[in-house]
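Dear colleague,

Thank you for sharing your sequence with our group. We've completed the structure prediction you requested, and as agreed, I am returning the results in plain text so they can be pasted directly into your records. Please verify that the sequence below matches your submission; if there's any discrepancy, let me know and we will rerun it promptly.
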Amino acid sequence: MIPYFTILHWLDIVFFLTLFVFLVVISIKAAGESVKLLISMIFASFLVTAFAAVLGLIILEKYTKKAKLLEVKQRRVLINETLVLKGRVKNIGKFKVNYCKLEIKLVNNGWGGGFSKGTFFKSGGFNVFGSKEKKQQRPNTIKATKIVIKDGLRAGEVKNFTAIIPYPPYFKNTYLNYKLYCH
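Please find the predicted structure tokens below.
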């Protein structure tokens, strides 16, 4: 956990710990002889500073560890019905990125493609009650997650990656969406 945090994360923790100690000292002076009031003030101080510290860490995490995808190329391999994505990940932030996760979403008929027979109404009167044969479900969306960087990426460093996702043969007019999450 220590290499995961940057200096800004540690400053956030130190600031909110100091704030908590300051609020406890003020609570002791303000409570006087009332123990119930003192405990409730310390508990409220803890809740406020803990919430603010966690929120600060989340915000720092989002804005200090940045990476972007470069030169992403895709190729469909018909032999094993897969889609191969190759590209590069670059750390554009000033701090080390510990790992990056690439989420790939392949959508069938992503940008239109029209309507097919039976889209709105099922054909056949008695098929409404169900048939003994169950049709094989064909997913319209394929979502894959690939860990791109495991061992860290220093500021300005670039690493290559390859991701392989299934590409069903019934997909036509596909739309590919990918998003990079780094921590």
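Summary note from our side: The mean pLDDT is 80.

Kind regards,
the structure core
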